[in-house]
Structures are given as C-alpha cells and as structure tokens.
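Name: Mechanosensitive ion channel protein
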Amino acid sequence: MSGMLTFLRVCLLALVALSPQWVQAADSDSAQQNGDAPIKVNAAVELPKMQKVLDKIKQQVSGETNDTRLNALNDLALELSGDADALIQGLIPQRAQLQAQLAVLGPAPAADSGVKETSEVTTKRSKLESQKSKTDDQIKQAETIKASSINLSAQIVNLRRDALKTQLALNAGSIFGPRFWAPLTNNQSDDSEKIGDFIDELKTAASLSFEPGWVFGTISWILAAGLVATLGRRYLEQFLAWVGINHLPEGRLRRSFLAAATALTTLGAVVLAFNFLDLAFTRHDEVVDDVRVFADKLVGLSIFCGLIAGLGRAFLSTRRPSWRLPQISNEVAMSLKPYPPLTAALVFIFQTVENFNSSANTSVATTIFANGMTALLIGATALSISIRTNRVRRRMIQEGHQPEARSTLVGLIQMALTLIGFAIMVALVIGYITLARFLAYELIWMGIVFGLFYIFSQLVTDASESLFSTNNASGKRIQASLNIDARHLGQVAALLGAIGKTLLLLAAAMALLNGTFGSATPIELVQKAIEFWGGKGLESMNIVPAHVVNALACLAVGIWVLRSVKRWLENEFLPKTTMDKGMRVSLITLFSNIGFVLVILMTLSIMGVQWNKLAWIVSALSVGIGFGLQEIVKNFISGLILLTERPVKVGDLVSISGIEGDIRRINVRATEIQLSDKSTVIVPNSQLISQNVRNATMGNAQGVATITLTFPLDIDPQQVRQLLLDVYNDNERILETPEPSVSFKDLTSTGIVLAVTGNVASPRQVSGAKSDLLFDILTRLRKEGVALSAPQTMIIERKDGKVVLQDAAE
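Structure predicted for Mechanosensitive ion channel protein:
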C-alpha cells in the first residue's frame, strides 16, 4: 500500500502546483496558525467592494441570455457568497472579543447609585460599545450580501434552465438542409476574424512557453504528461493488480478492486497529463485570461474523458477476461474494445470545439453546426454499439457458441441506448439540434453515473463481506476480539453493504438530477416534451403533466427500491438472524404492505393531488365501505392484527371450523391453509380473529399420541400395561421426556379400558406415530395371546309373545 500512498501524494502535489492560489492560501493559513500573520478583517473596505460586485452581477444578469456567460455569473455569485460568509466568520471573533472587554468593564453605574467611575473607563466603554454596534451592523450587512448572492445564484440557475428549455423547442434546421452546413460553405467574415484572433492568442501562449528560460520547463512538463499517460498508468495498474492478487483475500473482492483500480488509474493518468500540459503552456505570467480559461475548461473536460475511457476498460477488461466484473462474453468485449476511447475522443474533440467557439464568441450558426456534429457522431456511436453487439451475438449462435445470458437490466440498458441514439438522429433530421446535443451528452453522463454506481456498489458489497467473513483473517480477528457469533458478522456485513449501496444510489440520483453537460435534467426534458406537445394538466385537481411525470418516476423508483429491499431482507439479512421462518415471512409481508402504502401516498403527494378537491371520492369510498367494502376492510385490519400480534404465523398447524392444515401465507385479505392432501383453503382473516382457532404448534408444542384399547375382564392388567409401555419405549418417535404412561380409563361390562400415552416432537408426527404403534401393539398382543375385547351386540327377538334379549356372539 506504500506505493498507492506515494502515488496519491504525487497527485496532490501535482494538483497543488497547478494553482498558485492554493499555495498562497495554504501559506496564509499556515502563517496565521503559527502566529506570523494575525487575522485582521477590514470590513469597512471589503463590504462596499462586495456590494459593488453584487450590483454589477445583477446588472449583467438582467440583460444576459448566453448560457456560458450566465454560468460564469453564477460562479461569481457563489464566490461572492463564500467571501461574505468568510467575512462573517472573521467578524464574529472580533464581536466576541469586544463583548468580553465590555463584560470586564461592566455596565455603567446608575446615576443615583453614588458610584462614580473615571472618565477613562467611561470613554473606553463608549468606544467599545460603538465598535461593537458597528461590528453588528457589518455582520448584518454581510449576511444580507450573502443571502442576496445565494438568491441571485438560484435566479441565474432558473434563467439558464428556462433558456435551455426554450432552445430545446427551437428548430434550427435539418442537418440535410443548406442552413446547417452554411458555416462551411459561406464566408463568415466575423467568425473568421474572431477565430483567427483567438488562434493568435493560443499561438502567443505557446510561443511564450518556448522562450529562453522557459523551454526546459515546458519540455519537462510535456514529457511528464506523456510518461504519466502511458508508463505511469500501465505500471500503476500492474502494481494495483499485484496488490489485489497478493494482499487481498480470495473471492469477488479482487475482481471489484481491480475494476475500480483500472477506472481510477486511467482517470488519474488522464487528468494529471492534462494538468501537466496546462501548466506547461499557461504558467507564463503574460498569458491572457481567455487562454487560461480555455485551458482550464480542457482540464475539466479531461475528467469526463478519463472516466469514459477508464470505465470502458474496467467493464470490458480485455487483458484479464477471467477478472471481468460484468457477465460479458470475450467476443462481445473484444468487439466493443474500440468504443470507450473513441467515445472519449469524440467528447473531447467536440467539447473542445464548443469551448473554442465560446471563447472566440463565434456566431450562432457556427455554434449550432458544432453542436449538430457532436450529436451526430455520438448518436451514431450509440447505435453502432447496439448493432455491433447484436451482430456478434448472432454470429456466436450461428457458430454454435452460446452467448452470455443477459439479464433484464442489461436488456433495458441496450434498449435505452438504441432508443436514445435513434431519438438523437430523428431530432437532427427534423432540425432540433440543441435537443439532439442535449440527449447526446445526457446519454454519456448517465453512462458515467451508472458505470460508477455499478463498480463501486460491487466494491462496497464485496469489501463488507470480505472484511467480516470468518474465512479471512480480518473476520477471524474481529470475531475473536468481540467474541460474537459468525452469523452476527454476516448481519453486519449485509447491513454495511446495504448502507453503502443506499448512499451510492442517493449520490447517483443526485448526479443524474444535476446533470453536468446541461443545466437541465432528464426529468425536465420529459416535462418540456409534455409541455411542447400540449396539455395543461388536470387543473381542477391541481395535476399537471410535469407532476405526473415526476409521480410516475417516483412510483417506479419506489416500487423498485421496495422490491430490492424486500429481496435483500428475504435472501440476505433475515436468514442470518435467529428468527424462525414464520416471523421472517410476517415481517416481510408487513414491510411490503406499509411500504406500498407509503409509496402510493408519496406518489399522490408529488402528483399534486389536493384531498380537499376529492371530497366526492371520499364520499363514494365511505358509502362503499358502509356496504360492499365492509368485509374487505375488516379482513384487511384483521390481516394487520395477525401480522403484528402473531397469534398464528406461517408454518403453524392450525384447525378452525373443522379445517386442519399448515398456514402457508398470510395475505392482506385472507390466509392460505394447506391441507394434508396438498389442497389449499382460503380463510378470511377476520375468521382467524373472531373464531376459536387451535394452534397445535404455537410455542413449540409437542404432539401427543394416545391410543385407547378395550381388553376382556380376565386379562392380567400388569402384563398388558408393561407390554404397552414396551411398545411405546421401543418406538424411536416417542420422546423419553415426559415418559410414556398407561392409565386405567374405565371398567365396563365389555371389559377394561386402558389408554396409553406418549409424546412426539411435533403434532405433525402424531398420525404416523399412532399408525406404527398400533401395528406393533397388535403384533405383540397376538404373540402374547392377549385378545382385545369384542364389542357386544344385543339382538331383540319375540318368542311366544315374549321379548327375548340374546347376545349376538351366541
């Protein structure tokens, strides 16, 4: 791990070297902490400057429509808010110091107290009170500037979103029309002049870097960038692979670690290389600000290009197919190998062109042309990926090879890739260039977010399981240190994995809803499409199409999360607890019912349903509950009572109204009872609450096997008693505790009635045990010559006018 730490230190030092302001800030902080430069806040000078900056930003925002300039103004507003907050944090200690000094002087004595103080104390108190009042006013003014800056930033964001929505709905002309290709065919003198001026600025910056005294540094930084992007990435990746093989426990953690390491090393190498190049050409003091801003944008763009290339290499893993994280056949992986670097190159080239146009302030036609070419190539790449993947799979089938089994999620991803690529092409053909460009970059951004989520969710899950596994050294040490059972470690691992996935899911959702390549989000794009095609919503119920889209998205995500958590509880977490199966099923069912209710309520809330406008629905439900829905509601409430109080649970052997069987499922309305012949009886939940129910297995009850026999009066009772006890004691199903017993039940004219009783482990074993016992008893009785008493039947006959009773045996 020392090599990894060394690499991180080199990265941090390189990043710090790129920004002299960071170094200055760090030196300033260090000096302040060491007492060399005490903190001194001159609010009287800073506050007027901040107010002027705020007023200037407001003035520029009021008449600005360009998205790039609005973004820059938003950054200035946020920076101003941070400066105001820093000023407040600097003034608060000064106010506390003044308050402490006033507390030492104490309050001014009352006029009638007879106490007099010196004029110096009075003057000092007045001066301190004046300074404290002035400081309070400065803090309030700074807080006002901070709040105004934050509000201005929110307004700028709304302006950018509205501008983007407007641009998405504008038709700039089809790519097949002459209007789109006009920048190439027509002589745009203004654009040519602007582009030429900016190229001259770039050439000047490059020439400054090769002036005497700067050549060695420039060449050194260029060589460092090349070495980092090639040898540095390769050897670091090999080192991390060696670490994974030799220092990580065997299992899935090695694969997920290598995938994450591959993505991060590629990202780090690309970003460091571009930072070194930026430092090579813009470190000269005479480089103009436009060139510096353009270079900074390229450095920021390198992050996304590095992520695209790194995630592609991590997913495909063509050099180590056995370590490939997703289930992708080697043929498909090799066919897709060129696409990640190709996509990264396309994004970098066309984003560079767009940034160049923005820096050169070219015309709208040139900007639209660049956006259209960007969307065209990215959309064609997306369709090419889908077509090539299907072609490789078909060829594998024709050659007799079975391709990998694709999951539903993979199929949905490929379908979405195809549909979005097709939508980009359609938008370009009909002339919605901005919309096509937006879809192209949102497709790339969603791919980056989903790729990072997949890799790191696998890494978190595998790391949690490996850390607490008793098969590894870490798990054994934790178990020995805490002296806990292995299943508890499994529960902790499952919980940590679920918490990690939840945090990653929230981060992914926030990233998707705050898209990077555009100021609008995918949800807003759907909303715009609905508004574009018309439809003002159900105004009477306060339901608008935008709310409906958000509500449907919430419903889909909520159901997916609910089912995922349910599967996790059912398959991973609850089986590792000491709960019995019935308790686990009851908890899962209760969680599902409550979860669905919460998801539905949240969906209705997001949809904007106002319950005061649904009085007629509530009235209809009331009438329905009073008549037809009464039994349904009663059974539903009874089902909740069964799940919470648990008088019966899944797996219990119950009998109710002459029905006896095992409970297989407790639903919302009814309970399923499986009989001995495997048929199922549906019993309403209300009957299990209102009627007498016999639960034969509640409390781990034992079964009782009792056999009652009638013997003749002339038998030897002790001999028969011992024979019956021997039969019970020899049977393997009869428990030793409590021991079997024989009781004298009755003495009748037909004989002696004896009952022999023994316990079995479960009521379900009673029937089989009694059958075996009866076979054994009859066999031994016949062997010992002991007969059972025959039932006596009396026959009534009339002889000679008299009634005669005669035994049937005679």
